Amino acid sequence: MPAPIAAPARAAAEAQPPPRRRLSPAGRRRGAGLLLLLPALIALTLFFVLPLLSILLDSFTSPEPGLGNYVQLFTDGYTLRVLGRTLVIALVVTVAGIALAYPYAYMMTLAGPGVRALMVTVVLVPFWTSMLARNFAWMVLMQDGGVVQGMLGLVGLGDVTLLGTTTAVAISMTQVLLPFMVLPMFSVMQQIDRRLLLAGQSLGASRLSTFRKVYLPLSLPGVAAGASLVFVLALGFYVTPALLGSPQSALIAQVISVRTRELLDFGGGGAMGVFVLVVTLVVLGLSRRLAGPGATTGAAHVMAGGNDR
Amino acid sequence: MTARPWLKIVAFLVGLFLTVPTLVVIPMSFSSSQTFRFPPAGWSAQWYERLFTSPEWTTAIVNSLQVGAATAVLATVLGTAAAIGVTRLGERAKGVATGFLLSPIIIPNILIALVIFSAFLRLGLSGTLSGIVLAHTALALPFVVIAVTARLQGMDPALQKAGGSLGASPWSVFTKITLPLAMPGVLSGAVLAFVSSFDEVVISLFLQSPTAITLPVQMFNSVTVQIDPTISAASTLMVLVVSVPILLAQVIGARRGNRGRQR
After folding, report:
1. In a domain, B21, yes or no
2. B187 at the A interface (CB within 8 A)?
3. What's the pLDDT tens digit per position in B18-47?
4. pTM for the full model?
5. How many domains does chain B have?
6. Which end of chain B has less neighbouring CB within 10 Å, N or C?
7. Which of B81, B214, B205 minimizes the C-alpha distance to A44?
8. What is the ipTM score, two decimals?
């Protein structure tokens, strides 16, 4: 009886897809786009996203399931002190950074093309100069009997010990992180229409009050972008406190390092890491709402592209 | 509007604060003494001799060069493909994909180090140079993506369409039109990837083993574990290896920009 055999065969023939429908050119472009993206996405997922999820899991399950690691984070005296110290230093570095970067970025917008190119280079070169070399230089300068102590001696502060203190850490971190503050500020200030200032002054406002009422508010998105970037980076800083600080002035990154590298306590260290990550995302999210995404990406382009567009 | 004198002075001082302290490493590296005293009491080239002859330093230099080169190749290939891929996506998908690709730049390095260390420990990649290469590749991807994307954005998409409509296969459109036009971005991405790997400390510290020590890790250990003034010569080397390509890229970029404007 051929029918029962033929029927499924025909059904199969019908079920076979019609001759391949040609994708629209746009669809094909997107398909090719996805294909090109795939290797990078896979690499990032394998070496970053999956490990991150596994640490997140560890922080809730190791050594025992529950919120123990997080409870400890906010109840253990030592950890709390470290957390507090880290937040204070990050805040100090951010404020000092704003104070130094604002006039510099402002000057960049006023300078002629040649001077401006030089000023961009002065910001970019340290950004790309070896992190270790810069911190080592500070170690040399701030040691006992070093140059900085000598300079302080001139103003009658000769006996101040710097190396191993949080002050040394804060000074060096401010310098190392300054480019991250200058670039977003500059990228916002560059777009401010200076005719607004002239308008303000011609309407009778003083130079100071035009600055305060017109320029400052317009430049705030850049300040917010730079400040949040520096604050976030300062939170997770490891090299500077490790070289210029001391175990008594440890910051959270050092404690994470000891917990994981030496004690292999991925639950506890992971909980601290997750805390840093959450603070990072909240701060960056806030700054994105305040400043818009443009300021930070503009700065990223200056960093990688090397020229101001 | 001209700048007030005080503003110029402040900007100048900030510029000094950014650049001058680091230059201390250069005279330090020619010191004749065993201590970090500055200014040095006498001069010698002994730390350079040690840097280029003692096995622990030469191995570290070779390791760093290898890791940097491998990272540059991997990150450039993946990042360039991804950047080109991103331009072909729809608006929404573009934003999501870019955000994801750039995320390693904003995540604190200590967290990346912790996360990668725990994963690589399980995979047996911790303590190997290939492990460090893989981690550095993830970290360097954003720089390549940014550099190539910036270049592609300035490109006329009609060029690619024209190539296609004249009968070129997608592959030859890529190799004959897209890639040559994107090349400056690809090259600067590769330089940035190399530099970011060559200079990276935290992740390499976590993944180090006696057989997998990079130059920054050796430098870090030379001041925290023992006091070895060779670090000053190594710092000078780092400043040169890291800054000179960036400075050159800056100068070339500025020249090209000027030429473009004159046209």
Report:
1. no
2. no
3. 988 888 888 888 988 887 777 888 888 888
4. 0.84
5. 1
6. C
7. B81
8. 0.85
